[in-house]
Amino acid sequence: MNVSELLRLLQAEHDETATRADNLRGQIEQLTTALAETEARLAELVATRKVIDGLAPPDHGPAPAESATVYQRIVTAFNEHPGTVFRVRDLHEHLGLPTDEPSINVTRSRLGRLVRQGLLEQPGRGQYQKRT
After folding, report:
1. I need a surface site. Which of 16, 49, 68, 89 has the fewest CB within 10 A?
2. Rounded to whole angstroms, how far apart are CA atoms 50 and 67?
3. Radius of gyration of the CA atoms of the chain, in A
4. This prediction's pTM
């Protein structure tokens, strides 16, 4: 195999890989949009449930805590302390959430989503703060 044939094959593989990367970027963009729309709808449903719970007769028990409420509490904590850098465990203590490892990991995942959505930033590994 000569050099020009090798360069042609290399260029063809480069073009295929670049096309695949573009397709994946498009899928990521579509999924990010779908996730944002779904989370917004989830927040609307939580708000609707709160309104209905408020209108329900007193014998109606309180609604179970929804995960969207935790998102709202997290965002509120960062909005109330915009310059503060939180570690996940510190955030859990601040919000009065359980500090066991599975709960910490769920919150770490939630914070990652909020970083990807542009609401938070990571100034260091395991550190989160409100995006300025």
Report:
1. 16
2. 14
3. 22
4. 0.48
